[in-house]
TrEMBL record:
Presence of the UniProt keyword Membrane in the record: yes
Domain STAS: 415-541
Subcellular location as annotated: Membrane
Full protein name: Cyclic nucleotide-binding protein
Gene Ontology cellular component list: membrane
UniProt entry tagged with the keyword Heme: no
Record key words, sorted: Membrane, Transmembrane, Transmembrane helix
Residue span(s) of domain Cyclic nucleotide-binding: 568-667
Superkingdom per UniProt: Bacteria
Membrane topology: Multi-pass membrane protein
């Protein structure tokens, strides 16, 4: 059955391409089409990644080839050369895509564009079927020719019979019935059937010149071929094959190795191309048929190949009694199947907008031909991509400094001030790919953030995967708006390429990591500041904000003021507490807590700044926190009697009050109230640090 259907289809495809070229051309056309079918059935059936994959000459490639021949008026002798070129080029494209493991890329192609093409393929079949008996389509004869009506009527009848009855018998039985019927009709009404049959010449298979006449090929013939159209044919063939393969995956309920399928199909096409054949690929309908009939293993493919070969050898006796209208009916039927699937039944599967694209491409194929439709399809694909992508959010986080805080542990008074005035700092973290489709929307959204009270805008690029020149242009315009509104723009995690384009476009940039960089607000108002990460930029903004505050909110700290603020101690209690501590001073750059060391003291910072560093590997570390006066460090080691969990380095000359584990025990024994207050203070600090760590984790989990 596989062999019979392949033969009928190959026959109709050959008629479509060579039907108007006289008996000799038709005969060799049929032969190569059948040889293509044999090679594809055996090669793909044998080497496919799934044991039951059947193959035939690819209908969409045949239809496109017919369209190319009609649009470019290719001479009959060059059709074969064009077919070989298209088959070999398709083999090369398949191999290239398979080798580059890009088979899965089919998933990124917009389905409506492909559906439009496949509906168009249906139309080309329908027209091809009619052309077989009425070569001049645009004439009144079309309506007066009874054969045309007969072909259409039988085509529709066959289509509905297949729909109603289903199964694999309808097509071959219908075809045999039609051959019989048209022979009968032809004999009965000779005036109707003048050009239904080929003249009675009998060419044997062995004398058919089925290889193209390579010796007659000249450079001109090759350069004159419509290579743009041939390349399009190759690409559409690959898409159409991959589309069938993904549909097959659905119906088989198993994954196919698409890259391997491409390579196998490439091999089959290389072989059939060298023998003058057409493009072939795995076939959804033939594979489903094989499964319905219970075909297992390689045997069905061998039998099918033998059946096709038999037709190939005995063909010359059969072709003379073969009525062209019967073949035309098969083409009309095939066309209706495609149009039904992609134009009618797809209506419910696609959104209105997608369906309009299908209809548009279909209409352009009818009115203007395949090549225009390909251009339009490419354009629509690009536009759809841009539209889809520009809808993706590129803003990962848009918040202000009252909720997001830098990794600096500040005195309570500063923390309160930042909650109050933090809305002056806007932090926008971007993500994904920034390009012309997203740049404008982003610019508008960012501009709307520049309203008072915003004074600083931090733009973080650390999650951005790529940018283009439109993004740089949008940033230049954003910087202008910032200058007009007196907002300082800080860029963090900026990709090197973006920095380069911005600098080349005339944007002044100051890099905070450069030695001697002047990060004064006045200078930054004219330029933009570059920071390695958003945390450092936010720290700089917080420091700026705090330095602008009245001294009651920002002022200097003394040990007394800190202890009063954090532990609610009266001045005489402070004196009491301080007796348990011992003052120490550390110089800028000194590491006074070493990660991994045994711990026996904790420290209260009274002046200066300390960085807590997590040492990752030999010589490298990450900043966990920067500690300001009024906080305690080294408590983990003391309370758990274990080793230091991180290192502490003084960033500037720093004054500390040291409390040893022994003194803490003394305090617990002799001044319990004081000890309770100290413990409460430490618990509160730890709770704050835990909450901060959760925020960092939230970032990592995201
Ligand atoms: N994630 C963190 N956040 C804030 N402080 C920390 C963090 N990790 C460690 N520290 C401090 O750094 C100190 C290193 O020595 P300890 O482990 O004794 O006590 C530690 C804490 O005081």
């Amino acid at each position: 059955m596989l062999g019979l259907i392949s033969t009928v289809l190959s026959l109709s495809f050959a008629s479509l391409l060579f039907g108007s070229g006289g008996y000799g051309a038709f005969q060799s056309g049929i032969t190569v089409m059948l040889i293509t079918a044999v090679i594809a059935t055996l090669a793909i059936g044998w080497f496919s990644s799934h044991p039951n994959i059947a193959a035939i000459p690819l209908p969409s490639a045949v239809a496109m080839m017919a369209a190319l021949i009609a649009e470019q008026s290719i001479a009959q002798q060059d059709i074969r050369i064009m077919m070989v070129s298209a088959t070999l080029l398709t083999a090369a494209v398949m191999l290239g895509i398979g080798q580059a493991r890009l088979g899965r890329a089919i998933r990124y192609l917009p389905l409506p564009v492909l559906a439009g093409f496949l509906a168009g393929v249906g139309w080309l079949f329908l027209i091809g079927g009619i052309k077989l008996i009425q070569p001049q389509l645009l004439s009144v004869d079309l309506f007066l020719n009874p054969s045309v009506w007969l072909v259409l009527a039988f085509g529709v009848a066959l289509f509905f019979a297949q729909k109603k009855l289903g199964g694999s018998l309808v097509l071959p039985t219908g075809f045999l019935l039609l051959v019989f019927l048209f022979n009968l009709l032809g004999a009965g009404m000779p005036e109707w059937s003048q050009n239904w049959f080929f003249s009675g010449r009998n060419i044997s298979f062995w004398s058919v010149q089925w290889l193209p006449n390579y010796s007659a090929v000249q450079v001109d013939t090759l350069t004159d071929l419509p290579w743009g159209g041939i390349l399009t044919l190759a690409l559409i063939s690959v898409f159409s094959m991959l589309l069938q393969a993904t549909s097959l995956e659905l119906s088989l309920g198993e994954e196919l190795d698409l890259d391997r399928e491409l390579k196998v199909a490439s091999g089959a096409n290389l072989l059939s191309g060298l023998l003058g054949g057409a493009v072939a690929s795995l076939s959804l309908s033939q594979t489903s048929l094989n499964r319905e009939l219970g075909g297992e293993g390689k045997a069905p493919f061998v039998v099918a190949a033998v059946v096709i070969l038999l037709f190939c050898l005995a063909g010359s006796f059969i072709w003379q009694v073969l009525p062209l209208p019967a073949v035309g009916v098969i083409l009309v039927y095939q066309g209706l199947v495609f149009m039904d699937q992609w134009l009618i039944r797809s209506r419910s599967r696609f959104s209105m907008m997608d369906y309009q694209i299908i209809a548009l491409i279909f209409a352009v194929i009818i009115l203007n031909g395949f090549l225009t439709a390909v251009l339009l399809g490419t354009l629509i694909t690009i536009l759809m991509f841009v539209r889809q992508y520009s809808r993706l959010r590129v803003i990962h986080l848009n918040t202000d400094g009252s909720t997001l805080r830098s990794r600096v542990e500040r005195p309570l008074r500063h923390q309160k001030a930042l909650v109050k005035y933090g809305d002056r700092v806007r932090i926008v973290r971007l993500k994904g790919f920034l390009f012309f489709g997203t740049a404008y929307g982003l610019l508008e959204e960012l501009k709307s953030c520049l309203q008072p009270p915003c004074v600083f805008l931090i733009l973080d690029f650390s999650r951005v995967t790529g940018t283009d020149s439109s993004t740089a242009n949008a940033l230049l315009r954003l910087h202008q708006s910032c200058q007009q509104r007196k907002v300082i723009l800080l860029l963090t995690g900026t990709p090197f390429e973006l920095k380069r384009i911005l600098a080349a476009s005339g944007m002044n940039l100051i890099d905070s990591t450069d030695e001697g960089a002047q990060l004064a607000p006045k200078t930054l108002m004219q330029t933009a500041g570059l920071f390695p990460d958003w945390d450092r930029a936010l720290e700089w903004c917080e420091n700026e904000l705090l330095s602008r505050l009245p001294t009651t909110e920002s002022g200097e700290f003394t040990l007394e003021s800190v202890l009063k603020e954090r532990m609610d101690l009266m001045p005489y209690e402070v004196v009491h507490l301080v007796r348990y501590f011992e003052p120490v001073s550390v110089k800028a750059g000194e590491k006074f807590i070493q990660q991994g060391d045994k711990a026996d003291t904790l420290y209260l910072i009274t002046k200066g700044r300390v960085e807590i560093q997590l040492e990752i590997e030999e010589g490298t570390h990450r900043r966990l926190k920067t500690m300001m006066p009024g906080t305690i460090i080294g408590e983990v080691g003391v309370y758990t009697s274990s080793i230091r969990t991180a290192s502490a380095v003084a960033l500037v000359d720093t004054d500390l009050m040291k409390l040893s584990a022994k003194s803490l025990n003394d305090m617990e024994a002799h001044n319990q109230l004081m000890a309770v207050r100290l413990h409460r203070f430490v618990v509160m600090l730890l709770a704050e640090r835990l909450a901060d760590s959760n925020k960092v984790l939230g970032e990592l989990f995201d």
